[in-house]
Design goal:
Layout (H helix, E strand, L loop, with lengths): L1 H13 L5 H7 L4 H13 L3 E6 L2 E5 L12
Antiparallel strand pairs: 1-2
Helix pairs in contact: 1-3, 2-3
Length: 71
C-alpha cells in the first residue's frame, strides 16, 4: 500500500517525462512490482492508459459532483 501511494505521487509529479517502468525502477521497484502497482491503480480508476509523451499512463482527472437540491 505504501509503495502504491509512493508510485502514484511520483506519477503525478512525473507528468509524462519518464517511462512508467523506469519511474518504478527509480523508486526502487522491479518491473514486476511496478506492473502490479499499475494494475492496482488502474482497477481503482486512479490512473488511465493515455499515451502522454514517454509515459503511457496519466492520473485520472476527478470531477466534482454538486448535489441538486429541490427548493
Amino acid at each position: 500500500m505504501k509503495n502504491k501511494n509512493k508510485y502514484y505521487q511520483a506519477l503525478k509529479e512525473n507528468n509524462g517525462k519518464m517511462n512508467e517502468i523506469d519511474l518504478g525502477e527509480k523508486l526502487g521497484f522491479d518491473e514486476e512490482e511496478t506492473t502490479y502497482i499499475i494494475a492496482q491503480l488502474l482497477s481503482e480508476y486512479k490512473i488511465e492508459y493515455w499515451a502522454n509523451r514517454a509515459c503511457n499512463y496519466s492520473v485520472t482527472k476527478t470531477f466534482r459532483r454538486h448535489s441538486i437540491t429541490k427548493e
